[in-house]
Amino acid sequence: MCIFLSVLRLAPAALKLELEEKLFGQHLATEVILKALTGFKNNKNPKKPLTLSLHGWAGTGKNFVSQIVAEHLHSKGLRSNFVHLFVSTLHFPHEQQIKLYQDQLQGWIRGNVSTCASSVFIFDEMDKLHPGVIDAIKPFLDYYEQVDGVSYRKAIFIFLSNAGGDLITKIALDFWRAGRKREDIQLKDLEPVLSVGVFNNKHSGLWHSGLIDRNLIDYFIPFLPLEYRHVKMCVRAEMRARGSAIDEDIVTRVADEMTFFPKSEKIYSDKGCKTVQSRLDFH
C-alpha cells in the first residue's frame, strides 16, 4: 500500500540530524533539501511535483543524500516499490533509441504515479543521459492539475549529475582564495550559475532542456568539493558504520592516500569520499 508519509510525521528534526551527522561539508545541500522537502510535504495541495537537481563531482554525497531522502519518504527507501531509480548508462544507453526511451519513460512514470501519487523518481548520471530523453517527462513536472487523468503533483523527481562540478569548484576556490569560509557560500552564489551552465552544457542531459526553460526545476543544489578534513570525517563515519573503534592513525593514513587538486594548492579531494570504503579495507 502506498502511504504518503509526511515529513512532519517523520519529524524534520530527524531528517536534519541525519543529514548533519552523515553528510560532510555540504551545508547548502543540507539546508536546501530540508527546506524543500519540509515545505513540499506541509503543502496539502502542491501546484506541481517537487523537482530537485543535485550537482557536484563524484564522491561529494549526491547518491548518499538521495538514499537518505528516499528512506524518509518511504520506509523501505530505495527498496520501496514506490521509489524508482534510473541510471542513464544502464536504462538509456543507446542514442539511436531516444524516442523509444521517451515512450517507455512516460509509460513507466504514468503507471507508477497512478498506483502511488507520492512516487519518488531518481535519475542518476544525468550528465551521461542523451539530450532530449528527459524532456519526455516535462508535462508531468509542469503546473497541470492532471495529465490524461493522472495528477503528478505529489510526486518527487530528483536528478543527480556531475555536470556543473567545475562551476561549483571555481566558486568554492574563489571563496577559499579570498580567505572566506566555505560555510559563507550561499545558494544565490551558485544556483543562477548552475542553471545556466547546465542548460548550455552539451554533456549535462539537461542541455537546452525544456525543464530549465520552463523553470520546472525547483532547486539546483550544489555539492561542494570535499577538503582533507571532510575526507577524514568520512573515514571515521565508515569506521563507526563497521563497528570499529576510531583509530586516528588509520584515519590519517587513508586520507593521506587520496589525491587532491588544484595541483598548486591541493585543497579538494578529486574523488571526494568515493574510495574511502575500499581504501579502509587495506588497513
TrEMBL record:
Keywords: ATP-binding, Endoplasmic reticulum, Glycoprotein, Hydrolase, Membrane, Nucleotide-binding, Nucleus, Signal
Signal peptide start and end residues: none
Membrane-spanning parts: none
Record GO terms (molecular function): ATP binding; ATP hydrolysis activity; kinesin binding
GO cellular component: endoplasmic reticulum lumen; nuclear envelope
Biological-process GO terms, alphabetical: nuclear membrane organization; protein localization to nucleus
Catalytic reactions on record: ATP + H2O = ADP + phosphate + H(+)
Full protein name: Torsin family 1 member B
Binding of ATP, residues: G56, W57, A58, G59, T60, G61, K62, N63
Domain annotation Torsin-1A C-terminal: ranges: 226-282
Family: Belongs to the ClpA/ClpB family. Torsin subfamily.
InterPro entries associated with the record: ClpA/B, P-loop_NTPase, TOR1A_C, Torsin, Torsin_1/2
Localization per record: Endomembrane system; Endoplasmic reticulum lumen; Nucleus
